[in-house]
Amino acid sequence: MKKELKIRNVFLVFITGIVILHSSELCPGTVKNKNSPPLPVSSINSPVDCACYIAGTLSDPLKKARIYIDIIAKYAALGNKKMLKQLAVEINGLELSDSRKIRMLSEAAVKLSENGQFQQSLQTVDMIDSAGGKNIVLEYMFYVVLKLNMLDWAEQIADKVANKLQRDAMLVKLSQHYAEKKKFKKAEFTANKIQGLQRDIASYTIINSLIASKQFDKAQKKIDVVIDDELREVMLAGVAEGLSLDGQLERAGRITRTLPEPLQFRVIGRVAEYYAKNRRFDRALSIAESMQSSDVRSETLSKIALVMCDDNNFSDAVNIALSIKDQEIRRDTYIKIARKQAAMGEMDYSLETMGMIEDEKIKEKLMPELAGIYGKGAHSHYSLLIIKQMKPEHVKTEAVHNYVISFAKHGKFERIKKIVAEIKDKEKHDKTVSLIIDNYMKTMELDNAVKSVRLIYDPLLKYRKVAAIVKVMGKEGRTDFAYDILKNAVETIKNMKSPYEQVEGYIAIIDSYIKLKEKDTVRKLLHDALRVAKSIKKKDALRDRALGRIIIKLAESGERVRALRLLTEFSDKSEQIKVLYEFPVSVKRRSDFSREKSILRELARRAERF
What we know:
Blueprint: H1 2-16, H2 47-56, H3 61-78, H4 81-93, H5 98-114, H6 118-125, H7 131-147, H8 151-160, H9 164-180, H10 184-191, H11 197-212, H12 216-223, H13 229-245, H14 249-256, H15 261-277, H16 281-289, H17 294-310, H18 314-322, H19 327-343, H20 347-354, H21 360-375, H22 381-388, H23 393-407, H24 413-420, H25 426-442, H26 446-453, H27 459-476, H28 479-494, H29 499-515, H30 519-534, H31 541-556, H32 560-566, H33 573-582, H34 597-607
């Protein structure tokens, strides 16, 4: 996910900086009056249509474009391809600078691809008047469809990229994707479209996947087509390593002897690893110590030490780690051993191993992780004494947080309550308790979940957790208990000072009463919430926001007409639009707004007057 977000951010920033040398209208006749809506009032049949119409009355073209992009996602979900096409044309016809228009069309194309409208997305890309901009959007779309495993679309998108280097890089990714899925024929077919060294990169992944599948003969034959001599030797070493780990030491030896000395050492390291995994530690250590390459010797000793940990032989593992010359590899080995010790319930030894690392910042970062690993084993009294002694304070806080979340899966509320009390930071405390409640709900320990809610400081978080618990209780038939919790919550909400927070509190518990099918109570609470929202000064942004939250709940409880009428009280068109395109639509009656059409159309007419 992070990787995809990064790709998206990069291409958006890049597009913003593109300098357009020539300006041309791709869709003649699409530029209309700048405040002209994209559909007539008579065509408004749903809240999304109304939102789209009101967006068209906005005077700021950039703001209008951004709202159209949001609405695109809604029309995509409704399958309205006509409006998807129309909105792309509308964006293209707005009075924007060339660079901003490119960016807006790019974002629209991305939104379409993210919602599965790939054909429409490609048509929108065709409107972009910049070869570089097109290529960047196509590349982003390529990664979207690749993640969805829609490989035919990925191939079509790659073929539309004009830049050869960029297209080849995408084909490399596609080939690698096939190889990782063990679809070797498709991987090779795609790789054959690539020329030069880029093809070697694709071949490298295919060969590694063949080795992982123990198809050593095919991997060795595939190496013959590799252009780069050094890369060919590296791949051949990979085959020898795979054979070594598979126990085919004689065949591995024959290949190894044809390799340069540094690669020979790497293969020999794999032989040592093979002996270690077969519990022949003396032989493994003897081979490792005989290596002339310091780096490979360090890597091999590290692997042997970790195999020893799997045998619970921590003492010898630490001693081997101590003999590793490479400082970074030695440090990483200590960390891995410490993790294994924590998982085995040896927290004191785990911290002792961590103490052998000289870098204090690394230790501070990893101590909380060890505490979390340790908590999974339900070790409580002794472990907490150790964790409470951690320094500095922020390390101890994070360690207690990680530990108690892991420990929570074992129930034991009273013990957990005492541990959580050690977290003095209120925000961290509430975050910890929230995660503990989530755990109790997963394991259906609802009594413990309710007790945990009382530990939360933040009232809004408390009501949201109450609502979530009550929802589960309703399904389990424990309605009496649920009513008691909700009754107390209502009394607390009434005493809150901030009107907006009061509305938020009401919304949280209204969800619960909707699930309990308490229509009269829902109606009363919505009335109370509405009274509070209207007490907020007009033209205060919080007033529209609070009314918006109530409108959605009114619609969900079946009062769609009343909900839509409240939109006439808004002072901000943008907030009005937001509520309209978030307006709940029944799956069974996806387009049935016959009773509400007159209200929606009146809202649209009003929008042109203010």
